[in-house]
Amino acid sequence: MNTEAVSVDFFDCDVAVTEIILACKVAAGTGIKVHNKRPSHGFALNIAGRKTYIFNDGKKLSVEENDIIFLPQGSSYVVDDEISGDCYAINFKICPNAVFSPFVLHIKKSAEITECFKEAEKSFSSKQYGYSYKCRSYLYSVFHIAVTEKNLKYVSNDTKKMLSPAVNYIHSSYTKGDTRLEKAAELCKMSPSYFRKVFFYAYGQSPIKYINSLKLARAKELLAQNECSLENVSELSGFNNIYYFFRFFKKNLGVTPTEYRKKAMQGENNP
Question: Cβ(48)–Cβ(167) under 8 Å?
Fold first, then answer.
């Protein structure tokens, strides 16, 4: 009879953190290299460098900048610092416990999750009254960010193809200044909130920023041609208000449309 425990997905379990064992920053070149049957679960955020975790069952997981790795209680492994770098770690115990497998996630919201690890380390080091509750709250925030990234990770490799109806719509409508995100989401058969998440995952920016970047690129092109009045440039770029166009242009490029056109005529603007 096979009595070997079957591992489950950590985020498929509704767990409660019962104890924070440690929250710390591990400087490059320090830390334990060989771990034998970890006494607790742990999340580690790799700030810089590259590490490979070699587990006793032969599994290898590599982490680079802004990756987090989950290290289950009971796991045994060796850490190989291929490129030395700092990391943060939070070790903890949960209830109910189960057998989990280690995994790695690349975190796009790196500033947000780094802040969680930093604050957990600060609270744990202070040992001030209630520090354990604060540490747990930061760890739950790590859980939330990680599970969101995990869900987005499993969006198929055809994500951009899936978004193509919305992207085509954006490109055909942005110059008219009437692009509606609700319609873009509808074309992809998604809710507006899910559409924004998937779009950000695929293009690295929100739909609004994507649209604004198209408008700005079109405005720069028209200004460099020196064939349209500033009012026409504003309108043909999708800006319905010339005053907003001037403010937006100056905020993003540091010069007014008039100054940009002058420099373009003198060949001073970068491509």
Answer: no
How many degrees, rounded to 5, is the angle at CA 221 between CA 215 and CA 225? 145
Residue 92 has pLDDT above 90, yes or no: yes
SS3 content of the chain, % helix, strand, coil (to 5): 45, 20, 30
Q: What is the pLDDT of residues 35-52, one digit of tens each?
A: 999 999 999 999 988 899
Write the single-letter amino acid at 164.
S
Task: Tell me the C-alpha distance between 192 and 172, whole Å.
Answer: 19
Residue 7's pLDDT band (cuts 50, 70, 90): low
Structure tokens given for 56: 């006793």
Domain ranges in the chain are 10-153, 155-204, 206-271
Gyration radius of the chain over CA positions: 25
Regarding the domain with residue range 206-271, which homologous superfamily does it belong to in the CATH classification? Homeodomain-like (1.10.10.60)
**CA nearest 104: which of 139, 156, 59?**
59
| Per-residue pLDDT at 6 exceeds 60 | no
Residue 26 identity: V
- Which helix (H) or strand (E) element contains residue 147? helix 131-153
Residue 54: its H or E element: strand 50-55
The whole-angstrom separation of Cα 157 and Cα 199 is 13
Helix residue spans in 174-256 (DSSP H): 181-187, 192-203, 207-225, 230-236, 242-253
Q: Which two tokens stand for residue 169?
A: 């719509």
Question: In this structure, what are the phi and psi dihedrals at residue 143, rounded to the nearest 5 degrees?
Answer: -55, -50
10-153: what fold? Jelly Rolls (2.60.120)
CA atoms of 113 and 102, how far apart (whole Å):
19
User: Considering only CA atoms, which of 123, 217, 128, 228 is closest in space to residue 170?
Assistant: 217
